[in-house]
């Protein structure tokens, strides 16, 4: 019985040392390419909406930023806050369109402009 128990323990303890590991970031096959070289999916990060433009205002106008379709979880209050932080005041008629983009109007530089906010927090006006 002691020999059997010792054999079982040795088998159990020894099996964990046999586990295979792969070094992260290095392709396993000699001819494999990294994600960057093979055109694989790049990681996606949220933009820093505090400083979206060179002047740091967060204001994006015209076609400089393309608002992206996607499931938008921002509440109307959060949209108003982000628009205000980007320099837009008195946001009105905010509604989420079928593409998940919040759209409405707001005041900027004394003029009423159409504004939008996508699921990533990008703010754009036209």
Largest sheet: 4 strands, antiparallel
Cα gyration radius (Å): 27 Å
**Spans where pLDDT lies below 50 across 5 or more residues:** 54-63
Work out the strand percent: 15-25%
Q: What sort of overall outline do the alpha carbons produce when their principal axes are compared?
A: elongated
Helical content band: 10-25%
Structural class comes to alpha+beta
Number of helices: 3
Mean pLDDT across the residues is 74
**SSE order:** HHHEEEE
Protein topology:
Elements (H helix, E strand, L loop, with lengths): L1 H15 L18 H4 L37 H10 L3 E8 L5 E7 L2 E7 L5 E3 L1
Antiparallel strand pairs: 1-2, 2-3, 3-4
Summarize this entry quickly.
The chain is α+β, with helices and mostly antiparallel strands and 126 residues long. Helices cover 23% and strands 20% of the residues. Strands 1-2-3-4 form a four-stranded antiparallel beta sheet, with helices on one face.
3D architecture notes:
The chain starts with a helix and ends with a strand. With 126 residues, it is of the alpha+beta class. Strands 1-2-3-4 form a 4-stranded antiparallel beta sheet, covered by helices on one side. The protein has helices at residues 2-16, 35-38, 76-85, and strands spanning 89-96, 102-108, 111-117, 123-125. Mean pLDDT is 74; it is low at 54-63.
